Amino acid sequence: MEIKNLAIFISGSGTNLQEIIDKSRNGYLKANIKLVVSDNENAYGLKRAKNAKIDTFIVKKNYKELLSELDKREIDLIVLAGFLSIVPKDFIDSFKGHILNIHPSLIPKYCGKGMYGSKVHELVLENKEGISGVTVHFVDDKIDHGTIIARDFVPVYNSDKLEDLERRIHKTEHRIYPRIIKTLLEGDIIEK
């Protein structure tokens, strides 16, 4: 099977990035991570990339320059892994059907502008939801909206503190995201 080229977009600590790096290094993912992109020059995920000897790129409003960097590296798939900036429509159009996102809730619940990370989990706990989860979807020009590829459910317990729910959500993300990326790279998922 042909090895595909990935770009991973992050804003923070990069735990999903690390999981994808590990899975590509151990052969589970037939992929080369060619570029890690961040909108936050202080993101810890950039250190993870440097430790893995992966090129990095800081994007603010320079998406045209980023497109050039992606083209140079012949990127097959863009993986948003905790990337908090809104990606411009013309950029999305350039990679339509080749941009994935993972969201820490069961879309359409707790998604959209300003809904990310602990903000989602705080609302889930505040609203005494019995279940939360993770959604992987293709990216379109609306926030947390594109075609859903997979969801995985995570129980919410009455005794949960924020860190308990966050830990279970992260564990689920680390399991589901590499599996979906693998399936996509192997050609078993195609956006219509």
From TrEMBL:
Annotated function: Catalyzes the transfer of a formyl group from 10-formyltetrahydrofolate to 5-phospho-ribosyl-glycinamide (GAR), producing 5-phospho-ribosyl-N-formylglycinamide (FGAR) and tetrahydrofolate.
Binding site for (6R)-10-formyltetrahydrofolate: 64, 101
Chain positions of site Raises pKa of active site His: 144
Catalytic activity from the UniProt record: N(1)-(5-phospho-beta-D-ribosyl)glycinamide + (6R)-10-formyltetrahydrofolate = N(2)-formyl-N(1)-(5-phospho-beta-D-ribosyl)glycinamide + (6S)-5,6,7,8-tetrahydrofolate + H(+)
Involved pathway(s): Purine metabolism; IMP biosynthesis via de novo pathway; N(2)-formyl-N(1)-(5-phospho-D-ribosyl)glycinamide from N(1)-(5-phospho-D-ribosyl)glycinamide (10-formyl THF route): step 1/1
HAMAP family assigned: PurN (MF_01930)
EC number(s) reported in the record: 2.1.2.2
Taxonomic source organism: Citroniella saccharovorans
Similarity annotation: Belongs to the GART family.
Name by which UniProt lists this protein: Phosphoribosylglycinamide formyltransferase
